[in-house]
């Protein structure tokens, strides 16, 4: 199992700040596709991704016990 942390709109859409899913051996891209299909989260593609508090790209592999965070783009002014 992996822990998935959700922020901002994702958190509001699902009504929770975290999920536990079976994502061992998946890439980040595969996890995003699974979550989009299961929870209808089209905005997931625009989110930054971190595994265990380090930013990663969509090709990064996920291992059991990892914590994956989906972080919205930051805007400022």
Automatic annotation (TrEMBL):
Q: Name one GO cellular component term.
A: molybdopterin adenylyltransferase complex
Q: Which GO terms describe its molecular function?
A: nucleotide binding
Q: Which GO terms describe its biological process?
A: Mo-molybdopterin cofactor biosynthetic process
Pathway per its UniProt entry is:
Cofactor biosynthesis; molybdopterin biosynthesis
Any Pfam family:
ThiS
The record's InterPro entries line, in alphabetical order, gives: Beta-grasp_dom_sf, MOCS2A, Mopterin_synth/thiamin_S_b, ThiS/MoaD-like
Q: Which family does it belong to?
A: Belongs to the MoaD family.
What functional role does this protein have? Involved in sulfur transfer in the conversion of molybdopterin precursor Z to molybdopterin.
Domain of life, per lineage: Bacteria
The species is Virgibacillus pantothenticus
Q: Which SUPFAM superfamilies is this protein grouped with?
A: MoaD/ThiS
| Record's protein name | Molybdopterin synthase sulfur carrier subunit
On assembly, the entry states: Heterotetramer of 2 MoaD subunits and 2 MoaE subunits. Forms a stable heterotetrameric complex of 2 MoaD and 2 MoeB during adenylation of MoaD by MoeB. During catalysis MoaD shuttles between the two heterotetrameric complexes.
Keywords noted in UniProt: Molybdenum cofactor biosynthesis, Nucleotide-binding
Q: Which Gene3D superfamilies match?
A: 3.10.20.30
